[in-house]
Amino acid sequence: MPFAGNIGIGEIAIVLVIALIVLGPKRLPDAGRALGRGMKEFRDSISGATRRDEDDDEFETPLTRAK
After folding, report:
1. In a domain, 64, yes or no
2. pLDDT tens profile 28-62
3. Domain limits for position 26
């Protein structure tokens, strides 16, 4: 996982066990789904901002030399 950094399998397992205890088995799938949707929207907004930034370069006027 590229965003994980130095997080190992043990740490991920601990987080999942805590989430299971806090949310319970009935609400855990809904929470995972909501987290996934949020991550997707975040990625889409970041890539959209990058695309808009790249598109802005088309409209810049060329630089001219100072006399």
Report:
1. no
2. 999 999 999 999 999 988 887 766 655 555 556 66
3. 9-49
Measured CA to CA, the distance from residue 17 to residue 24 in angstroms comes to 10
Domain count, the chain: 1
pLDDT at 20 over 70: yes
Which two three-digit tokens encode residue 20?
């299971």
Is 24 domain-assigned? yes
**d(C-alpha 65, C-alpha 47), whole Å:** 34
pTM > 0.85: yes or no: no
Structure tokens at 42: 């975040």
